[in-house]
Amino acid sequence: MKIHNLWADEKGESHWRDIEVEYVDTTRAGRLSKRLPATGIIFREVQPDYDLDWHPAPRRQYIINLDAGVQITASDGEARKIGAGEVILVEDVHGKGHLSKAIDGKVRNCIFVPID
Fold first, then answer.
1. How far apart (Å, rounded) are the C-alpha atoms in residues 58 and 21?
2. Do 96 and 54 contact (CB within 8 A), yes or no?
3. pLDDT in tens, 9-34
4. How far is CA 13 from CA 32, 68, 72, 96, 98, in A?
């Protein structure tokens, strides 16, 4: 499984990279990663005309899109379309941040899982 990771370098420039989930156990029910830290869960509903200007992430957190996509542009210019069912780890909590824009023309439900 791949997780999109948006992070910021020491100059505050945001960039994309991919993180591969490492599975450490196999059970009858499937493969499992190690248990990762989290501090809560936040449910979010985003309107179909969502178009947010430059902003850093409010905290380090996973974002899990449930039913629609979003386009996120890093400050280095790379844009990714993150679809339903995909996971992002946002860590660009300083610097210029990123752009976020709705792409599917419908309400997007997602889950934030803060890790700090």
1. 24
2. yes
3. 999 999 999 999 999 999 999 999 99
4. 33, 27, 14, 6, 9
99-114 tens-digit pLDDT? 999 998 999 999 999 9
- Into how many domains does the chain fold? 1
Whether the CB-CB separation of 89 and 1 falls below 8 Å is answered with: no
Report residue 36's pLDDT band, with 50, 70 and 90 as the boundaries: very high
How long, in residues, is the chain?
Answer: 116
Quote the distance between the C-alpha of residue 65 and its chain's center.
8
Per the structure, the complete domain to which residue 98 belongs is given by 2-114
CATH code at 70? 2.60.120.10
